[in-house]
């Protein structure tokens, strides 16, 4: 199969935007993606679009893919919506890469959009765990906070990490997010703030949980045959991996990691012909702080049970050896469910293009994005590579 | 008589208690004479769940299993549904055969005695047994005497042909006395006109006439007498021909409150647990009627009547739903009634499946095997014993509950949700399932805590109560 390249990517600010509709948000992200293409792009070059979304206005809406792309002026092209809970647009980018690699498209758009805040607090509760194992897991009174809290209880019981390490994730990601103008919660927090916050689902407190956000993101993927028309500084999709897992926690072999993440990571590394050591920075799905610790281990950044050491040693801070969530992550940048995965790729594109501003990672070659649906029922990993001219 | 005997008695009361002083502080007065404290159902308890607790204990005391039950009667003035046969679900929760004869008796506090009376006429049941369970949790207006007295509890008799207990004599009497205690159709709260002398006359006259009809001598050790409060029974000593001490020896109203249709059953359980050899049970129901039994023991008893969690009055009002909101608009995840119904064996009895290909246990036994991913035509059904160990656990704080559980949390506060590794039938392999853990008197539920199942209300959607298993720490067993 031929190679695929990210030629442009953009996202709206994430946050609470009552003036925006899902269509206007998608259009704004699309415009930013188009504007980011170094040599420019004729919008008519786009052959296909895949839009990630969990629901619109807290409910299902049929044809939301075409509704968004037609609104943005992408007229007449194949367009569809993909649903994989919080991994929806990680998967939509993967679909765009597939379309390009297979030869069915020369340029494809993978994006996502979610509106989560323009409804009453009662209706907002709909989002809380609607993507879980509904008949059994949810009917013990859990939302995703509860399920991740259960995983955290097992992890903290088995290994040396403490609740304070969970708070350290929040401090790090807020410090980064404060440098990101697109962040939903773009402020710094102290360790005391992040330790003393009210409990949501023990052992997770409010600072161990990401917000629900509005937002959209779009990624433009081009084939090796046409990439030169759009950029002189090509960023290759070096590896893609994706995997599923049993949706209910209780049906899994282990609760102290996410098997689908591990499989997706291994596939992406294999695809790219690299090892975890080669990754210069990563955007990780930290929907809950414990998930960032799991990802360190699932993606091979450390051994099982050692994730807390990376935090203790500052390895994953912005100026560390392997910055994680330079964007602020889901915790600070925000989590508009269907837009999150594409937003991570947009961040990686910025970092590899050297346009990430105050949060720029020093001279990266390989960036990894890691997007998880629910408590791990789906995961998708992309490895992007800045191709250095020989 | 029919040769029907009493093989065992079981009794259960919620562990939540409120002291009379809490009402005194809140209202400036307490209207329920002789009630010192009373039992309060948890937000996920009702007459059905308490009935299961009592019936399982009675069966254990009698040395029988749910599969032995040929006749099942439920007596209550507070059925969770005004129309719909609750004995079908009760039968499923107890694991009785599907051809069990079932009876529901309701309408007055005499319902328990009526159900027992009818069961004594219905037996014998060959190798099978009858379970007659009275379970009640009456309510009244917050400032009323009936609400101040209103308690909760359940007790069950297991009847067979060769049990140690015998019914020496029994009699009933009815006489129209409208308006003493009633609950209009559609109301949740029991009320009355409060015509003191008339109410007392209804009570004593019917009990007097029923007792007069007995042939057996009333040389009893104890008398389990209908107790709407802690004072009225003692006004009936002359009518019943028993001493105040005999009544006091079998009373539960001072600690459990008015337990309605379960009142005399709970009295009997208490008296037999204390070693009573000969007992008078004297049930009264408004309308009015009385049914009395002379029962000779000893009878094996298993009870869980102690309280261990004292409520403040505001927390009591929360449990009662007086100051809490219902499920929020906007709804939760939707689980249709038919899809719920398909999982009833799992929810009521923890029925798992063994994979015919690899032998792994699966819960629920549906879809591809969790061990080998084979798709068996059918799993071998395996009923788990219900004990297990917590593998992963969280306590869901305010704001962390999904909409279907907001009402439970509003009433009861934070709840514990866990993944439990349930023991397999051979005690070696386990199979995991998610469940709430009732904390009971145990301070902390942690990874490794040993738990066992019980039946509770899970949630209510579209007006349909969904019952299923929850767990509680083995250390909290009463």
Provide a descriptive summary of the structure in words.
The complex is a heterodimer of chains A (390) and B (478). Chain A has 390 residues and is α/β, with parallel strands linked by helices. Chain A is built from twelve helices and eleven strands. Chain A has helices spanning 22-35, 64-71, 88-102, 121-124, 144-158, 163-177, 191-196, 259-272, 289-298, 307-312, 329-332, 340-353, and strands spanning 4-11, 48-52, 79-82, 107-114, 199-202, 204-205, 215-223, 235-244, 281-283, 366-373, 378-386. A nine-stranded mixed beta sheet of chain A has the order 3-2-4-7-1-8-11-10-9, with helices on both faces. Chain A has a two-stranded antiparallel sheet with strand order 5-6. In chain A, α2 (64-71) links the parallel β2 (48-52) and β3 (79-82). The radius of gyration of chain A is 19 Å and the shape is globular. The relative contact order of chain A is 0.20. The mean pLDDT of chain A is 95. Chain B is α+β, with helices and mostly antiparallel strands and 478 residues long. In chain B, the strands form four sheets. In chain B, strands 1, 4, 5, 6, 7, 8, 9, 10, 11 and 12 form a ten-stranded mixed beta sheet that branches. In chain B, strands 19-18-17-20-21 form a five-stranded antiparallel beta sheet. In chain B, β4, α3 (87-94) and β5 form a beta-alpha-beta unit. The two termini of chain B are 36 Å apart. At the A-B interface, α4, α5 and β5 of A face β17, α14, β18 and β19 of B. β5 of chain A pairs antiparallel with β17 (387-396) of chain B.
């Amino acid at each position: 199969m031929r190679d695929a390249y990210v030629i442009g990517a953009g996202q709206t600010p994430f946050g609470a935007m009552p003036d925006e509709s899902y269509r206007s948000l998608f259009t704004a992200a699309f415009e930013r993606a188009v504007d980011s293409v170094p040599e420019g792009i004729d919008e008519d070059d786009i052959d296909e679009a895949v839009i990630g979304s969990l629901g619109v206005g807290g409910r299902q809406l049929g044809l939301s893919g075409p509704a968004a792309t037609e609104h943005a002026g992408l007229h007449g092209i194949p367009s569809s919506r993909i649903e994989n809970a919080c991994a929806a647009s990680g998967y939509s980018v993967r679909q765009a890469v597939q379309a390009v690699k297979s030869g069915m498209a020369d340029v494809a758009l993978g994006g996502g959009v979610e509106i989560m805040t323009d409804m009453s607090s009662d209706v907002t509760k709909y989002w809380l765990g609607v993507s879980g194992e509904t008949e059994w897991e949810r009917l013990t009174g859990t939302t995703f906070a509860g399920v991740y809290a259960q995983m955290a209880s097992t992890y903290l019981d088995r290994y040396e990490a403490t609740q304070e390490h969970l708070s350290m994730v929040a401090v790090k990601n807020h410090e980064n997010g404060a440098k990101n103008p697109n962040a939903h919660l773009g402020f710094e927090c102290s360790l005391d703030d992040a330790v003393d916050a009210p409990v949501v689902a023990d052992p997770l407190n409010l600072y161990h949980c990401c917000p629900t956000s509005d937002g959209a993101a779009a990624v433009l993927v081009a084939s090796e045959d046409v990439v030169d028309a759009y950029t002189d500084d090509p960023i290759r999709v070096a590896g893609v991996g994706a995997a599923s897992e049993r949706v209910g926690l209780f049906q899994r072999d282990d609760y102290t990691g996410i098997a689908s993440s591990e499989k997706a990571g291994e596939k992406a590394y294999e695809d790219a012909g690299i090892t975890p050591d080669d990754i210069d920075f990563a955007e990780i799905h930290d929907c809950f702080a414990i998930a960032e610790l799991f990802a360190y281990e699932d993606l091979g950044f450390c051994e099982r049970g050692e994730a807390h050491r990376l935090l203790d040693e500052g390895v994953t801070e912005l100026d560390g050896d392997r910055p994680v969530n330079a964007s602020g992550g889901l915790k600070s940048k925000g989590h508009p469910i269907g837009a999150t995965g594409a937003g991570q790729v947009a961040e990686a594109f910025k970092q590899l293009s050297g346009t990430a501003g105050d949060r720029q990672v020093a001279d990266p070659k390989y960036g990894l994005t890691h997007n998880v649906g629910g408590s791990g029922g789906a995961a998708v990993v992309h490895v992007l590579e800045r191709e250095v001219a020989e | 008589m029919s040769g029907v005997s009493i093989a065992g008695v079981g009794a259960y009361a919620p562990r939540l208690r409120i002291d009379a002083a809490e009402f005194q502080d809140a209202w400036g007065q307490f209207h329920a004479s002789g009630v010192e404290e009373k039992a309060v159902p948890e937000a996920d308890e009702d007459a059905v769940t308490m009935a299961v607790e009592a019936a399982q204990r009675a069966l254990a005391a009698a040395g029988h299993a749910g599969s032995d039950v040929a006749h099942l009667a439920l007596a209550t003035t507070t059925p969770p549904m005004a129309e719909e046969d609750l004995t079908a679900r009760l039968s499923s929760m107890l694991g009785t055969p599907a051809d069990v004869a079932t009876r529901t008796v309701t309408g007055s506090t005499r319902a328990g005695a009526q159900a027992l009376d009818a069961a004594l006429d219905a037996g014998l049941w060959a190798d099978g047994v009858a379970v007659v369970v009275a379970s009640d949790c009456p309510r009244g207006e917050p400032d009323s005497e009936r609400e101040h007295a209103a308690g909760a509890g359940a007790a069950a008799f297991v009847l067979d042909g060769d049990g140690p207990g015998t019914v020496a004599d029994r009699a009933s009497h009815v006489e129209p006395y409208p308006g003493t205690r009633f609950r209009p159709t559609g109301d949740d709260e029991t009320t009355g006109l409060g015509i003191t002398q008339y109410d007392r006359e209804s009570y004593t006259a019917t009990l007097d006439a029923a007792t007069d009809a007995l042939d057996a001598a009333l040389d009893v050790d104890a008398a389990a007498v209908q107790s709407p409060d802690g004072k009225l029974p003692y006004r009936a000593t002359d009518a019943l021909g028993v001493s105040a001490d005999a009544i006091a020896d079998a009373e539960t109203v001072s600690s459990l409150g008015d337990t309605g249709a379960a009142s005399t059953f709970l009295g009997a359980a208490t008296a037999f647990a204390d070693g009573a050899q000969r007992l008078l049970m004297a049930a009264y129901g408004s309308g009015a009627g009385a049914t009395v039994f002379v029962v000779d023991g000893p009878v094996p008893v298993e009870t869980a009547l102690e309280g261990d969690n004292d409520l403040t009055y505001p927390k009591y009002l929360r449990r009662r739903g007086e100051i809490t909101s219902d499920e929020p608009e906007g709804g939760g995840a939707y689980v249709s009634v038919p899809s719920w119904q398909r999982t009833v064996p799992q929810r009521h009895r923890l029925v798992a499946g063994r994979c015919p290909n690899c032998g792994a246990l699966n819960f629920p036994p549906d879809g591809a095997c969790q061990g080998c991913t084979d798709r068996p035509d059918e799993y071998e059904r395996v009923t788990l014993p219900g004990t297990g160990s917590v593998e992963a656990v969280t306590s869901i704080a305010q704001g962390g509950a999904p909409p279907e559980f907001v009402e439970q949390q509003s009433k009861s506060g934070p709840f514990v949700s866990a993944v439990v590794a349930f023991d397999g039938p051979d005690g070696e392999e386990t199979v995991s399932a998610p469940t709430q853990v009732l904390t009971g008197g145990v301070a902390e539920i942690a990874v490794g805590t040993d738990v066992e199942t019980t039946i509770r209300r899970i949630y209510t959607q579209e007006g349909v109560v969904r019952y299923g298993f929850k767990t509680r720490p083995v250390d909290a067993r009463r």
